[in-house]
Write a structure and sequence with these properties.
Helix content: 40-55%
Oligomer: single chain
CATH architecture of the largest domain: Alpha Horseshoe
Structural class: alpha+beta
Largest sheet: 5 strands, antiparallel
Length: 506
């Protein structure tokens, strides 16, 4: 991270953004000598991004800094980012604006350091020095300047070599940051034929896991509260898919029994939701004997369509153990294989939904943490949910939040968990803040009109419960549903007690 804005102010310099020049003193952006008109909010956004070049600033941080509020809709920021990016693209047509102003999902926005540099101030004193040297005709002074020039050249050369070495060491990390992610909704797998219907659950589970492991797609499903309340299941929908309002692209698969035993025909359709039109389609033959690698081809083709890096094969291998987990809910008592992310997440999802014996939950948590040197992001969230279920609030909070204390995922249910933890710990300010964050996150699954109508109402237990009653959950077990309803009911009771127009603040 580099604070170009502060450096420019201290050295009375300007800042080059590609071929554009920003003057912090006058707060103006120029292309050659022509000033580019900027709105005040756009100037504030640009200057904030210039304080953290190469390092993502979270949406929450930007909103709180510029709008002095944590409760401005993230759509407002998204629109402002789009405005600035469009302006850069207009005046820098030879550049890719998405790589100038980079969106890094779940982390924030940043300016690419490869295109930002300081422009030194005009050195008006050069002429005076030159004249003085000429007038004096002092050969020693000339030699001294020459020696200084040589030293400067050497210093610059050495600095350049050191910079290049450092650049090489960070190239891989930067390369990953500069690749814009694609938000993809895994929507549904429709099955035709008895075998296709039977194995649909396995196809869904494998494809979801492969996408979760891939760092360049942002799985929109994870932003739906029902993602953490849905089993993989035999229904057509992926977890969370039934509730999502927006995504960049939507993926659907039509699965049919194949002509040969042990094979299926699969048609993958990639939809552009903004228009409902087909963006990409391909057909595949899936073999039960090699199902993981055949589905991986779908995953690879999607990445290729978006011009993203080729995905790497998973470290886990599909086995009878994995299939029994999904088909029969049979979970082996044997220790997890090292770094078997598929088994770990599948087990965690099952335990979160169905298991009520604390001993089994605790045994799994002990086992899984010894199976991974570094916990994958998705698995961390599920472990956080399990710790929350056990009442291990401190540990749950660590797993569900970033080091700064913000939710690791823009999911209303996770915000609710974090808010509930804060309430139990008597941290009422955090309780209220995370409650408001959960409302904003509900924009991902509720029409904006519905949410605005909700926000226009006074806070109460009923208004708190209102959005949750509209969610579609694939669970059919009424006992499980009632347990989650009881939690939300308790939470909304606390909201009514602590967040009320009539409540006197102390």
């Amino acid at each position: 991270m580099r604070d170009f804005l502060q450096q420019a102010k201290q050295t009375h310099s300007c800042i080059a953004i590609g071929e554009l020049v920003y003057n912090p003193k006058t707060q103006t952006l120029h292309q050659d000598t022509v000033a580019i008109d900027l709105e005040p909010r756009t100037i504030e956004l640009l200057e904030l991004l210039l304080t953290s070049v190469g390092h993502p600033l979270s949406a929450d941080t930007i909103i709180e800094t510029i709008w002095q509020s944590k409760f401005i809709s993230k759509n407002v920021l998204t629109n402002r980012i789009s405005t600035l990016r469009a302006l850069l693209q207009q005046h820098l047509p030879e550049y890719d604006a998405t790589k100038l102003l980079v969106t890094y999902p779940r982390k924030g926005y940043f300016l690419n350091p490869a295109n930002i540099r300081l422009v030194p101030p005009a050195k008006n004193h050069r002429r005076a020095i030159t004249a003085q040297v000429a007038n004096r005709k002092n050969i020693k002074l000339i030699l001294a300047y020459s020696l200084c020039a040589v030293l400067v050249v050497c210093s610059v050369t050495l600095a350049s070599l050191l910079w290049q070495r450092q650049e090489i060491s960070t190239q891989q990390t930067r390369h990953q940051l500069l690749i814009p992610k694609v938000e993809l909704l895994l929507n549904r797998v429709d099955a035709i034929g008895s075998q296709a219907r039977k194995y649909r659950i396995l196809v869904k589970a494998i494809l979801l896991q492969q996408q979760v492991e891939y760092p360049y797609t942002d799985i929109a499903n994870q932003d739906a509260p029902s993602y953490f309340l849905d089993p993989i299941g035999h229904t057509p929908y992926f977890p969370g898919a039934r509730n999502m309002q927006t995504s960049d692209y939507e993926l659907n698969i039509e699965l049919k029994d194949g002509a040969e035993q042990g094979t299926f025909k699969a048609q993958m359709n990639l939809i552009y939701p903004a228009t409902g039109k087909l963006a990409f389609r391909n057909e595949y033959t899936l073999r039960l004997s090699d199902l993981q690698s055949d589905i991986f081809q779908i995953h690879s083709d999607v990445a290729q369509y978006f011009n993203l890096p080729a995905p790497s094969a998973s470290t886990w291998q599909l086995s009878d153990v994995h299939q029994k987990m999904l088909f029969e809910n049979v979970f082996s008592n044997q220790p997890l294989q090292q770094a078997d992310e598929f088994a770990a997440i599948t087990t965690a999802r099952h335990l979160a939904l169905y298991e009520q014996e604390p001993q089994k939950l605790e045994a799994y948590l002990t086992q899984v943490q010894s199976s991974f040197d570094v916990l994958p992001d998705e698995l961390s969230l599920w472990l956080g949910v399990l710790h929350f279920k056990l009442g291990n609030l401190d540990r749950a909070k660590v797993l569900l939040t970033t080091p700064d204390g913000d939710s690791r995922i823009q999911n209303a249910l996770i915000y609710t968990f974090v808010s509930h933890i804060a309430y139990k710990q008597n941290k009422l300010e955090q309780f209220r803040l995370n409650y408001m964050e959960s409302l904003v996150a509900l924009l991902r699954v509720l029409p904006s009109e519905t949410l605005f109508e909700r926000l226009s109402q006074s806070e109460s237990k009923e208004t708190c419960l209102q959005p949750w009653k509209t969610l579609h959950v694939s669970l059919t077990d009424q006992e499980i549903i009632s347990r989650w309803k009881a939690l939300i009911n308790e939470y909304c009771t606390n909201v009514a007690n602590e967040i009320s127009p009539n409540k006197t603040k102390t």
